[in-house]
Design a protein that fits this description.
Aspartate Aminotransferase, domain 2; Aspartate Aminotransferase, domain 1; seven-stranded mixed beta sheet; four-stranded antiparallel beta sheet; 13 strands; 35% helix
């Protein structure tokens, strides 16, 4: 079975929009895209008057080098969100096809399914001694029974923190081969010691991997995400994508942010985050009013409180904003706390200690 069999039948031969930048033409005077002949007064370089390269080649090659894949296997988009949306729109026929998700988890999988009128089927994570983990037997049975087109896994999972062993991803992809595409969201992969599922692509056409520069690389505002998958699937999704998804200033910033010097500093900061995560977990876990701190492979910790509202307000009073997770399934008393600088983490500890002292 070809990976193209996962794609909606009406889109398999879809050519998409042919923009002025999709044609490889050369010339001195560019009059083919109805662009301004003059730069905007605020544009010192003058480059913004031209439409951008839809898939900037230098950035695409650099990202492929970073992630260990071929450039032809990589699609650049507006963060991981766009890739999620493209996958659901290109693979799921409205009102018929299904998407499997594992709550509590990143909400965009469900949002994109809803917008496409694709059935969302929940297979909840199991809260056990090791933290929240996927029920792979239930995921497999649910995907097969409901003829799901997509199975979204988040590793490390947001907001729960656990990473999925590569062997589990491989086993699921094998069981669903020819039946569903397994999408592994590795937005927080740089903080994890679990190898990337990209290493499985040569053996499985039904695996796709999401990566982003928003987290470890500190480029959230640039909105540069990548989908790494089978080349044929990448070609189809490119035809379904907006004509100019990557603004030139964002591509240039991202390329600079992936220089060897920048990557060295990013690696140092990742090590700092990992060290702070290890330091913060037992300190929080020992606090009065803390019911549980979940082990995490991401740059955050999920914490259950006996009084989550009081903890949230105490942190806010100290100028610290954390993510309230109480509306998420199974997380009615939980907050997600991102790992900050050592000084910021000390302020978190102090704010929660002050809450304890006030209660006494």
């Amino acid at each position: 079975m070809s990976v193209l069999d996962f794609v909606r039948s009406d889109l398999r031969g879809f050519a998409g929009y042919s923009s002025a930048r999709t044609e490889s033409l050369q010339g001195e005077i560019w009059l083919n895209a109805n662009e301004s002949a003059w730069a905007n007064p605020a544009d010192d370089s003058g480059g913004s008057r031209r439409y951008p390269d839809p898939q900037p080649q230098a950035l695409r090659e650099r990202l492929a080098q970073l992630y260990g894949c071929n450039a032809s296997q990589l699609l650049i988009g507006r963060g991981s969100d766009e890739a999620i949306d493209l996958l659901v729109r290109a693979l799921c026929e409205p009102g018929r096809d299904a998407v499997v998700v594992t709550p509590p988890v990143f909400g965009m999988y469900a949002v994109c399914a809803r917008l496409q009128d694709a059935r969302r089927i929940d297979v909840p994570l199991v809260d056990g001694e090791a933290g929240f983990t996927p029920d792979f037997k239930a995921i497999t049975e649910t995907a097969l029974t409901n003829q799901a087109k997509l199975v979204f896994l988040c590793s490390p999972s947001n907001p729960t923190g656990a990473a999925i062993p590569l062997a589990e991803v491989e086993a699921l992809a094998r069981r669903l081969e020819g039946r569903a595409l397994v999408v592994v969201d590795e937005a927080y992969g740089e903080f994890s010691d679990v190898p990337s599922a990209i290493t499985l692509l040569d053996g499985f056409s039904n695996i796709a991997v999401l990566r982003t520069l928003s987290k470890a690389h500190a480029l959230a505002a640039a909105r540069i995400g990548s989908l790494v998958a089978n080349t044929e699937l990448i070609d189809v999704l490119r035809c379904c994508q907006a004509p100019y998804p990557v603004p030139t200033p964002c591509a240039e910033l991202a390329l600079s942010g992936l220089s060897e010097a920048a990557l060295d500093l990013t690696r140092q900061r990742v090590e700092t985050i990992q060290g702070e995560r290890a330091r913060l977990l037992p300190v929080l876990d020992a606090m009065a009013g803390v019911l549980r701190v979940y082990p995490s492979q991401g740059n955050y910790l999920l914490v259950r409180f006996s009084d989550a509202e009081a903890a949230f307000r105490a942190l806010l009073a100290a100028g610290i904003v954390v993510r309230d997770q109480r509306a998420a399934p199974q997380l009615g008393n939980a907050l997600r706390i991102s790992i900050g600088t050592p000084e910021q983490n000390d302020r978190v500890i102090a704010a929660l200690d002050k809450r304890k002292a006030a209660a006494a």
